[in-house]
Amino acid sequence: MTTLASRTAPGRRHHGGVNSGQSRSGWLFTAPTLILLGLFLVIPILMALWVSLSDWNGNGSPFTSRVNFVGLENFGSVLTGNGLAEQDFGESLRNNAWYVLLVVPIQTVIALFLAMLVNRQVLRGRGIFRTAFYFPSVTSSVAITVLWLFLFSQSGAINNVLSWVGINGPNWFNEPSGIIQDGLAGLGVKSGPAFLTGNSFLGVSWWDWIGGPSVAMTALIFMAIFTTSGTFMLLFIAALQNLSGEVQEAAMVDGASGWQRFRFVTLPQLRPTLFTVLTLGLIGGWQIFDQIYTGTQGGPAGTTTSPAYLSYSTAFQNQNWGQGAAIGFIVFVIIVLFTILQRVVLRDRKVSRRRMRLYQPNPATRDIPTGGDA
Amino acid sequence: MQRRNRWLAASVLALASAVALTACGTGFNSGSGSSTGSGLTSSKKALTVLIGSSGPAETNAVTSAVASWSKSSGTSAKVIAASNLDQQMAQGFASGSPADVFYLGTGALAGYASAGDLLAYGDKLSNKSDFYPSLVKSFTYNGKFYCAPKDFSTLQLVINKSLWSAAGLTTADIPTTWDQLESVAKKLTTGGVVGLSMNGQYERMGAFMVEAGGNLMNADSSKATADSAANVTALTFVKKLLNEGVMKYAADVGEGDGGQAIGAGKAAMTVEGNWVTGELSSDFPSVKYTVAPLPEGPAGKGTLVYTNCWGISKDSPNQAAALKLVEQLTAAKQQLAFSKAFGVLPSIQSAAATWKKQNPTLIPFLDGATYAQGTPASKGSAAVVADFDSKLATLATSDPKTMLAAVQKNLLATIQ
Amino acid sequence: MTATLGLPPVAVEPKPPRPNFRERLTPRQLWGNAIVYAVLIAIGILYIYPFLIEIFTSFKTEADATANPISLVPPTWTTAAYQQLFVNSAFPLWFGNSVIVTVFVTAGRVFFDSIAGYALARLNFRGRGVIFAGLIAVMAVPSVVLLIPKFLVLNTIGLYNSYPGMILPLLVDAAGVFIMKNFFESIPRSVEEQARIDGAGTFRTFWSVVLPMARPALVTIFILSFQGSWNELAQFIISANNPNLTTLTKGVASLASGQLGQANRYPLKLGAALIMTLPVAVLFFVFQRKIMNTSDGAVKE
């Protein structure tokens, strides 16, 4: 990245010549992007930080003297206030956590599955299939939400299809019960044990925390999988095409079955792409907003609120700007935490010494320095 | 050396932007316009009127009323039908460019008034004494009468006539007690039709709470009464109807509200406000319906009253014209025209007699004004009511007492 | 994360590893292929059918839409939904606003991303490393955090309720800068040196010599920007509340949440969603190959 020219002693200026022209041009060329970044990214974050630490009520500028610094009060009422704010935040957190928990793995698996299928060598018409699977990703989330509202309405297409197999479909977008709770109720467990319903975290009882996403949220989960699996499928296809066929052939010669080949040869080589897909999925999943704004506005019974939507509605509808900004920052922290967590879980672990010994050639029998048999 | 330069540059940039921001703080309030002698601003700017419409009928009626005022007064004005009134109002105030005139509900008054967004023009109204005193009280905050009530509505029972007679019922069968309501709903619940349907919200089912002798708060929203035994009785009754299958929420029959439910023939009865007449005439013009008083509860008659006022923003550059517009829109002739278009009740007493003559079928709505109670109006209560509505979604399987206890706790937090 | 360029062109269809001891596929392999085809076709139908429903339902009457949600062919063809859409709502205005915003954002992003990418790839100046690190940091900030503050900033600088206020924030595109930077790094330096010998200045070199060579990457940025700005919602919510500045996304969202009353006007809503999807769909089909062969920044020729 750095060329010979720039590796001069620090402090030595170049007057004239190619490099000062480059320096000027360099700053000039990047200036628009930098100004925009500063204006619409750096400064907003600083402003939001101030608003979240103040009691601005939406009238006039937040920088006048009438607005007071209140410290962590907004954060406090959202995280520990024991009132409606904490309960709303807890609910939104629960909804979004289940959403991410279900969407990210499922869409990754489906994307990989589709990529493996579409990438098969003997397949004809793979372009058509790729187009079909990728098309939903191209549409706007508003348009897809409108379509989904129709498909999942009470007398809509999905319930129609379910009735073919005798299932009476729920009123998807108006059903607030959690699917795990529904499942347990189907098995006869109608209400939770006392220690779960009695205790709560962030204003939501533990029974509700583990109750699963609501039926309405599940419809949104289906929509997310439908619209994002195509994008990730493309990433996987590109990665699969970069794999050399030789390793596969070697594994086949060794007698590995298809599944073994997938698990021990293909999958480890896909690790970087897998990591990318999971990261993008996590980051996107914690920011769900458009679908809620268009489709459910947080209902039914607050089971499709997300922290992003809550941040918006607290500020723009309830005029509680400080709390809204506070929620936004909390979401930021959550996303960073999850990304770090995922990085830690998926890191390349150092191979333990014992395993290393398995792969070392036995010095006594070694004749050619090309490594022995495993 | 390079590192120090970087830090220096960064701190200079931060300092510069901080200075720039405080200087630019005035970008928020672009209010201009001179003040007249009466303390109201006045300018040549056009007025914007922001409304939360119940449908095309209301939007058209308000638009034509404002247009005719524009023509006669010479000040142009534009009507905007909000898709989300609360959000657009909050955004407008925060950005320093709010609408000049807007719908303001009782629940929203406290918040905006305390933030200094509203102009308290009530005492300047020329027809001030004509408004119903109870409505004036609803829009008085901290002793100041803020805005002119534009109309009001109560909730009553609306019945789909053809489904009613198809079940073999006559006018004599219209229920007058809760037990009768239950039995009539049973008779009306057949294959694809449910006897009673309404939005699963406090804004409808609260009528039952009033009829049982309770409500979420007292008359001037200074005390929280959510966990009273009367409220528990009312919700237990509704829960019973839900579990018997004779009542379903409008969303559960696939409709947006009770009016749609009876118009589409999915329910025979609904509890709705008088705005439903406008909705029914525009969406289901061929459906015939009757309006009957709600059946009496354990404590007698009761219903909820809804009223909005014409708010004028303090930042408006043309308050004088806005005041004139409001006076025009609350005049008897205009209110009766609105009533004909989308069924609201006139907020001035002088129009009552004419209105009764023009709308003999809707008289129960107006009569309801005598025994109706309002919705909570303390600051922040709107969020509590929204949360209560969420809880009510699962009323059929929940315990009303726990539900109301939680609401009580949240309401207490708003009046401290 | 991004595959670098400079790989030899990879054949799209690598040779299948044929078993050495047979000429044709075994029955087992034929069966395997058949199953794969069946699965793919089934899933493909699952992915496409909703859009077919959308198209055909917009031509049904409201009663038909509710009564027969799955069937494709309307018993009575009617364009009532579209008529209502254009008469009862400001749909043409929304479309126009979306076009304006998208044109400016796309043009702006293509230009600013390419010059910034070129500067980071080829020009040597102090602070290049800082800017690069800054861009990475920028990509990490989730947009949800910026909802409220962008609104505040737009107010402060007086751009609220204006077209610049809707366009400028969308010009921030760190990913695009990265794509261009990666691409420019793969262009041989000899081209630029030749231009410099011929006496061209920095901008001239960039504009007339290097940029035309960057067509594939520019097309990528063009597609991504078009899609991004056409489908954007949150930015438009916070940057304007003047109904004359409503874009398609905001308008259709308000239709969905009941602006035209509480009735289930499904054909109308689906028709609106359909028209909204058409431009990006057309773009998609035209540039299909380019989009399919792009993976997060890499461009395969």
Plain-language structure description:
The complex is a heterotrimer of chains A (374), B (416) and C (301). With 374 residues, chain A is an all-alpha fold. Chain A has a domain of 191 residues: MetI-like (MetI-like fold, Orthogonal Bundle), CATH 1.10.3720. In chain A, helix 3 runs antiparallel to helix 13. The longest helix of chain A has 36 residues. The N terminus of chain A is likely disordered. With 416 residues, chain B is of the alpha/beta class. In chain B, the strands form 3 sheets. In chain B, strands 3, 4, 5, 8, 9, 10, 11, 12, 13 and 14 form a 10-stranded mixed β-sheet that branches. Chain B has a two-stranded antiparallel sheet with strand order 1-2. Chain B has a two-stranded antiparallel sheet with strand order 6-7. The relative contact order of chain C is 0.15. The N terminus and C terminus of chain C are likely disordered. Classes of the chains: A mainly alpha (374), B alpha/beta (416), C mainly alpha (301). Chains A and C meet through helix 1, helix 3, helix 4, helix 5 and helix 6 of A and helix 1, helix 2, helix 4, helix 5 and helix 6 of C.
**Class from helix and strand fractions of chain A:** mainly alpha
Query: How many individual β-strands of chain A?
Result: 2
How far is the N terminus from the C terminus of chain A? 40 Å
What is the topology, as strand order, of the major beta sheet of chain A?
1-2
Mean pLDDT of chain C: 82
Straight-line distance between termini of chain C: 19 Å
In the predicted model, the low-confidence regions of chain C spanning at least 5 consecutive residues are 1-11, 295-301
- One letter per element, helices H and strands E, the order of chain A comes to HHHHHHHHEEHHHHHHHHH
The largest chain-to-chain contact, stated as pair and per-chain residue counts, equals:
A-C, 106 and 108 residues
CATH topology tier name of the domain at 77-139 and 220-347 in chain A: MetI-like fold
CATH superfamily of the domain at 77-139 and 220-347 in chain A: MetI-like
Classify the helix fraction of chain A into a percent range: 55-70%
Number of helices of chain A: 17
Strands of chain C, count: 2
Q: Count of helices of chain C?
A: 15
- Proportion of beta-strand residues of chain C: under 5%
Main structural class of chain C: mainly alpha
